[in-house]
Amino acid sequence: MMPQQKLEPIFGQNIPKSCVTLDVTIPEEEVTDLFAWLDEIPLSRPRKNIHRDFSDGVLFAEIVHYFFPDKINMNSYTSINGTKFKLQQWDILIQKVLKKRFNFDIGKDVLDKIVHFQPGAIEVTLSEFRKKMKQILWMKLKHNPYFNPGCNFKSLGLCPKEIYNSSPSDFTGCYDSQKIFTALGRNEIMKFTPQEYQDVINELEKKLNALEESMEFKDKTIEKLESRIRVLNEVIATGNHKHEFIDQKRERLKIKNLNK
Q: Do 137 and 71 form a contact (C-beta atoms < 8 A)?
């Protein structure tokens, strides 16, 4: 019996280790899809020759930063020439970011092919890291339905329905009505038990009550503000009348003094 793969904590989750080796291959249609995915990511330079573009590790680091900006410091990576310096930069990326934060490693034989522009190596590495990011997102959403991955993750093609395709009972204890009705289809919702229906209804009623209380509070606030405005207008009007009365008195005194 094969021993189970050891799991290590990543982002508060347990993500299995993975390592890119020369044994890994990807079909041609997946490569085409990979290129289309890369073109959706705003890299610092456009993709021309993928084997040369990614040889120094900078663009790979930019992909990590695009999806996980808090997990990598881009100041550590610059465009460089020379096999020795490229390997050093890749080693920093692998040791400090990929292995430490993602349990993701790149074999030395694969890395050697990447820095020497050999076809196939970077394609496999990008494809495997893309799968790793999907795995992390899947586990975070499965663990916490309220987790908001952000708009950048849309390009991974991982939708809520793909995550919650098991059983409606997975939502027990963490009902979010909007997430349920967008993530699950009508047929899946129809499979809810009476208790699950009641839980959803209770959640909706809570939201409705909260909205009503909020609207009532806003109405009262508006009434108070309108009342203050009326008082201020009255004060201003009274003040204007006082000024007019004083001005009239001054004019009368002037006329009286002139007549003397």
A: no
Residue where a domain stops, chosen among 76, 108, 143: 143
- Contacts of the segment 138-142: beta carbons below 8 A, 24+ positions apart: 138/163, 139/13, 139/14, 139/15, 140/11, 140/13
pLDDT in tens, 166-199: 333 333 333 344 444 444 444 555 556 677 667 7
Report how far apart, in Å, the C-alpha atoms of 1 and of each of 19, 117, 237 are.
22, 40, 92
Q: For position 113, which CATH number holds? A: 1.10.418.10
Q: What is the rounded distance in angstroms from the CA atom of residue 126 to the CA atom of residue 224?
A: 60
At 57, phi and psi to the nearest 5? 85, -10
- Helix (H) or strand (E) segment spanning residue 14: strand 13-16
CA distance 121 to 113: 6
